[in-house]
Input
Amino acid sequence: MRQLWVVLLLLAGLNSYAQQKEPTLKEVATGDSIGRLLAPLDSVVVQDIQLINNAEPTAKTKREGRSVVVDSTRVHKVKRDWSTWKPDPQRALWLALVIPGGGQIYNRKYWKLPLIYGGFMGCIYAMTWNNMMYKDYSQAYLDISDKDPGTCSYNKFLHLGVEITPANEARWKEIFKNRKDKYRRWRDLSFFVMIGVYALSVIDAYVDAELSVFDISKDLSLKVEPAVIPNHGGGNPLQAQSLGVNCSLNF
Output
């Protein structure tokens, strides 16, 4: 009888050890064995594993029949510190090339925009006005050159009571021709000035971005003072020295 009790106790011990060593089918199905393996891990480690698997961390994770709250990480957008921001010269150059005034906007020099766009508007207005006057005087020159009395657009350029006669026709032809050529030159000049304003805006944007890292701290100092410069090779003692200005930059 005692031997039977000993055998039963040994079988019960082996069964209990096997149950602790290997998870049952029910534990595998419910995930209790995974929860028992992950029990030593804290909430931060569980969250890192979920992030690696491209899954957002859940609010609660069930482990061994109890819930553990996992704090989700919030990504805050870092605000740019404009006091220490420095523009990129290459980006400023390309923006100024693509969009007139874009480099100045990127460099945060908004006060230059009225100058740039004012220059463009002035050049466009001058080009339009000179082109209109050129067409009018060109048509007047053509009308006065032909012998058709029906074409007399040149009369609007004459003063009240003035008429074109064969005696003064040559002089008026020369006047219309000179004014036609003058307004054509001014129209072309307005176009080239507009190109110059555009090129100047591009150069200004690039140079401004480059000089944004230039040291202008209080350690820089410019000292200007008079100086006596000796003249080597002068035979006259009165001309052995000259007066000048000495400029020294300390940094």
